[in-house]
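so im writing up the methods section and need the Dolichyl-diphosphooligosaccharide--protein glycosyltransferase 48 kDa subunit record in one place, dumping it here so i stop losing it
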Amino acid sequence: MRKSWKTDSLDISGDWKRAFPSAASSQSPGLSVSPLKSPSSPPRPRSSDLALRAAMARLRTLPLALLFLLLLGVPALFSVALGFSADSPTDRRLLVLVDDLAIRSSHSIYFRSLESRGYELHFRLADDPKLALQRYGQYLYDGLLLFSPSTKKFGGSVDLAAVLDFVDSGHDLILAADASASDLIRDIATECGDPAALVIDHIGHAISQSDVDHTLIAGDEFIKSDVILGPEKIKAPVLFRGVGHSLNPTNSMVLKVLCASPSAYSANPKTKLSNPPSLTGSAISLVSVVQARNNARIVISGSLDLFSDKFFKSDVQKSKSSTKHEKSGNEQFATEISKWAVNVRHHKVGETVEPAMYRIKDDLEYAVEIYEWSGTSWKSYIADDVQVQFYMMSPYVLKTMSNDQKGLYSTSFKVPDAYGVFQFKVEYQRLGYTTLSLSKQIPVRPFRHNEYERFIPAAYPYYGASFSTMIGFFIFTIVYLYNK
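--- predicted struct ---
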């Protein structure tokens, strides 16, 4: 603001004019005020009084405008605050890479089964230039579904090394291939063996009018394990059309979940065989699983159609069999094998969803399933000395877990009063058994400003000091003003 004073007059500059336009007359840029008259004449209002009155009139309307803005703004801010929650789960997110987004509808039953179990699916094209598995050193997804068999190159920062690093970090992978599998997909599948040509079975094929080359297999050679395929027996055969793969015999962590019948072989149905096929019989694996040393779990399927709605709903009758099933076993098989992909879980007491982070002094539950290989199948491991650590630089909590005699170990405890990045750690070493080492990272945050107690007992002396100071000042004021 700029004021220039004259004798017995007031000059309002441009800045003040813009602020108080009602104080300015239609005269020249300066407003002249005549000299003061004698006291006998009634006083005329000065220009400064006019300016102040205009300013006060504007200030009277200001609270109403602010109130209107607050009424509009507060609900908007409140809705934004409700839209963000630090406790929303992020470690049950699955990235689904596809060649064509039409797979989302053609395989919708399988995807809905995953969503019904609490998973959040993110569908992306495999060649998306913005594709990424991690950001700022943190993985964005808990699992990866590769339903893009013909992809020759992934988009963005994803490549073969990125996928293998994703698995090496303890995340899960489900890979589905078919006859059009690219070299990239075959390189990833090499972790479980060498992909071969189409599987053909002239005896164990499914009866179908469109299947003239007997590549539609009705597989019922399942692994005998309730741990992987669930306690309920799969009664109907599983429809399979795709490539088989062989397992590396030196890799003890690979298991055949579904293998071909003794009459099957691997070959190109469009060419004539000049030499005996290299893969025959039960040596051909149709679906295999890998349990890595870091407990990451990989599922390799040679058939993308195995997960399709068409195969889920199809009836099936195996060749040379009089039994016809109204529905194939594909849905039950795919659901159970995807359940096997997650074996460690934690959540707050009274809830079932795993949070993205915990708050100090939260009550949580931790559970893990442990099984042992008996030589022919997986059986529940029973022990009373399995412990879990809640670890940050050193163990803050060390608890012995109880078991339900079925392989499920669980415990509950209160999050310590310390915030930072913690880990659930299970280190189990016993003579004659493979060392069990589980680790899962989870952040712990402090209380928010609105989560503390309204009055803290430890602060009562400070409350008393504050109120006594205010009361004393009030009494002193009264005494000082009215004491003569």
